[in-house]
Structures are given as structure tokens and as C-alpha cells.
Amino acid sequence: MLPNTWHTRWGFRVAVLGLGKSGFSVADTLIELGSEVTVFAAKAEPELAEMLDVIGARLIQSDDPEAFDSTQFDFVVVSPGFPPSHPLVRKCLESGLELYTDIDLAHRLDDKVRKPSWLTITGTNGKTTTTQLTEAMLRESGHRVTACGNIGTPILDAVRDPQGFDFLVVELSSFQLHYSGSVGAKTAAFLNFAEDHYDWHGSEAAYHQAKSKIYRDAEVAIVYNVEDPKTLIAAEEADVVEGCRAIGFTTGIPARSMVGYVEEFLVDRAFIENRADAALEICSEQDLASLGVLSKHLKANIAAATAMARSVGVSAAHIRAALMKFRLAGHRIEVVAEHRGVTYVDDSKATNAHAADASLSSFESVVWIVGGLLKGVNPKPLIQKHAARLRGCVVIGKDTQLLEQLFAELLPELPVEVIRGGDTMQGAVAKAASLAHEGDIVLLAPSAASMDQFRDYEDRGNQFQAAVRELIGK
User: Fold this and answer.
1) Closest-CA residue to 432 (of 386, 362, 365)
2) Superfamily of domain 13-98
3) What pTM was computed for the model?
4) Segment holding 426, helix H or strand E
């Protein structure tokens, strides 16, 4: 049984699986607490490997189960890059070793300076934007807060911050939730659920089960999506602290105990005294003009973040001020340029069909740049849904065969270009521009992960933007 406080000696022998930023933060934290740490990683950046040596941790540059002696360890901390089907993970479980994540450790160790309240957020799409919005609202109200977890700062670095925080806004992926126990958040949000990561989890049921764990032991509120029945099912089945409320968010008109929109106004009918008959105006859509394309998906993220902030007492005035100052992170329905009547939009962060659906739904006539690692998800329903708005398509990715077949089968008259070989994005933008007419949107919304051809979604988006600038320069 692990201690539930920083203020005791953690004299354990620990195996850490994976050496990214979070893996290093785990090793660094446990060494500081007096544990012996061995990191197992098939790949290790030289800088991180050198830093492990400096702090006194051992590195075994392998994830082969043969290199792992379970008798040498008290427990294991696993990084999200290791799926449950990984042979090393299976060996750990078969050996009877307990598996934890950096989130589990942070939950036990967050009292180093002063114990913060946790607000946790998951969903197939929109996690990062909602996390950043919630962080901005809390900061505007005068709280010391940071976003962490699956975004930005590793969570163990946050809990070791010398000044401490009032709130941690923690983005959690399904990978982290699969391995994690309860974090007992003050408020937890499940934004949406759609087909994604089935290759990692093994099934839709396992994916939904992992996401649903976000609600476990929540204290004040569990926030669900009124327009997504899968999040409501999770809320109805959640095991929460007595008195915890279920709060809905919607892009439509909110009922009692919901946050949503009445005409052009964002309103709260959840955290006011007379919620049966009244609503508190938070802001107008005009106040959100600086956010750019106000898609339905972005409106949902704003409503969810508002519900999170209101659950811990943030005023309507502070939420409005935060929204008026907020700027979306790059590569999320980001307008790059307009040239000869064609607008170029970067939504490289649309790494799954749910995100791409939200992006495509925002425009009427689109030349769509699509493809990459599909993660076991069938893109056919997405293509069928948006067939009428497609002017043309440009297919990228190392494995383009499935998409080529689907477009040929479903939309045989649609102009489709396939980019093969080097200079992927430069060629894709040039082909898309040749297919576009005045008034069209050239949209990078790949509906796929990026690692087959790019470092990550940011690299993919940056290359798209560079290619657009080069095209305009020509």
C-alpha cells in the first residue's frame, strides 16, 4: 500500500515503463523521495538518458520482458505509450505487481506544499481546449492554477512547484485513465465519446469504461454532455461522493442544472439559487468574436469549461473576462490565410473522426486534406456524412489504400488526389489549391494520428502552414 502523503519516506524499488517527459518526472520524483528507480524504454532521447544518470536512476534501454525481473521491484509506474496488450505490461500483471501512473502518484503526493483542488477533464475530442479555458477562468478569478496531465507540464512537476497551486486542471487521456485508480476530483468532466483508440483499448466497451473512470469519487459535480448519451450513461453509473451533482452542458437551450445557450447568450441554469425559473447570463456570442470560427464544437467546450468554473465558485464576470481574452492554441480550426478567394484552415489537431466531423461541419464547401494513422477506426461514416460539402479531397499518409477505396466506392465523381513520397504537405497544399474554387475552404482535418509521416500533430500543422505561405508567396 503506497503512502498518501509526500511527507514520508518512499523507500521503494520501482520500475518505470517509458522515458518521455512524464516518465522522467516520475523517476525524478521517486528518487527525490528516496526510492530506487529503474527505467525501461526501447527508445530514449540522449538528453533524458543523461539526466537519468545525473539524478541516480538506472536505464535499461529495452522493453523486452526478458530484460525485466519482477522480483526486483515493489511496484511499476507505466506510461500511456504502453498498451495493456504490451508483453512487458502483461508480464508485470502476471507477476502480481501493482501498476500505477504518474496521475496516481500525483494524487498521493500533492500535499508537498499545499493541497490543491483537482478539476479533471476527458473526452474523445476537445480536452485540451476545455482544459485551457477552465484554467483561464480560474486564473482570471485570482486563483493560482495550472493545466497539467496530458497537456503541458507533467503533473508531478506541478505538485512539486515550490509555491503550490490552488487548483490543478488535469487533462486525462483514456490511456491514463485505463491504468489509474480514483483521483477524487472536486469536479470531473466527460466531454464526448466517439470511435477512437480501439486499437489500444481493444474494444468500444473498454474505451468507454476507461473514459468513465473520470467520474469516480468526484466531490462537487460531474459534468456531462447533454447531446452525447454515452457521457450521460457514464454519469448515471458513476460512483461519486454523496451530494455530488450531475451538471449538463449543451449548445442548445439548457434545462435546470445545465449550462447552455439561449439565442446568442451563454447562460447558467445550474449554479444559481432560482435555477428552476431563471438563468444567469455569462456572456454573448459577440464577446467570443476573438476566438475565430465559433463552431458548434467550440461552443460545447466553452459551455463545459463554464460549468467546471462555476462549480467551484467562479463568477460570471470573471468567466466573461477570461473568454474575451482567450486565444485558442494553434492547429485547432486555425485560419492560416485567404488567397484568391480560398481560405486555408489548419485543424491538424483533428486526429480522430469525431474532431474532423466538428471541423467539417463548420464549413459549406471544402477541399479536404485527410489521412494518416487511422488507429483502427473506419472513416466510412465520416465520408458519407460530409459528402455533400466536399469539393475535392487530398489523401496523405503512408497507408492510403483504405481511403482511396472508400472515396472510389462512395464518391466516384469526386476529384481525389493521393500524395505519395517526400514533401508530403507541400504537395498536398498545391493539389488542394488546384481543386479549390473561390469561396472554398482548404481544410487540413486529417481524422488520423500523424506519426506515420510527422513528428506529431503540431509538426504536421506547422508544415501545412509553411506550405500555404510558400504557395501564396509564389
Assistant:
1) 365
2) NAD(P)-binding Rossmann-like Domain (3.40.50.720)
3) 0.84
4) helix 424-435
CA pair distance 238, 224, nearest whole angstrom: 11
Rg (CA), the chain: 23
Domain boundaries, the chain: 13-98, 104-325, 334-469
b/e burial code for range 313-345 (CB count within 10 A of at least 16 → b)? ebebebbbbbbeebebeebbbbebeeeeebbbb
CA 121 to chain centre: 9
pLDDT 10s digits, 21-58: 899 999 999 999 999 999 999 988 899 999 999 999 99
**DSSP string spanning 209-225?**
HHHHGGGTT-SSEEEEE
Question: Coil, helix or strand for 10?
Answer: coil
**Nearest 5°: CA angle at 363, between 442 and 451?**
50
Angle at which helices 353-360 and 296-311 cross, to 10°: 110
306 vs 254: CA distance, rounded Å: 13
> Three-state secondary structure along 137-176?
HHHHCCCCEEEEECCCECHHHHHCCCCCCCEEEEECCHHH
Q: How far apart are CA 62 and CA 45, in angstroms?
A: 13
Which amino acid appears at position 281 of this protein?
E
CATH 3.10.270.10 assigned to 104-325: no
334-469 CATH: 3.90.190.20
Q: Which amino acid is at 361?
A: S
> Which are the contacts of 94, defined by CB distance < 8 A and separation ≥ 6?
none
Summarize pLDDT for 257-279 with one digit per residue, the tens: 999 999 999 999 999 999 999 99
Does 474 score more than 70 pLDDT? no
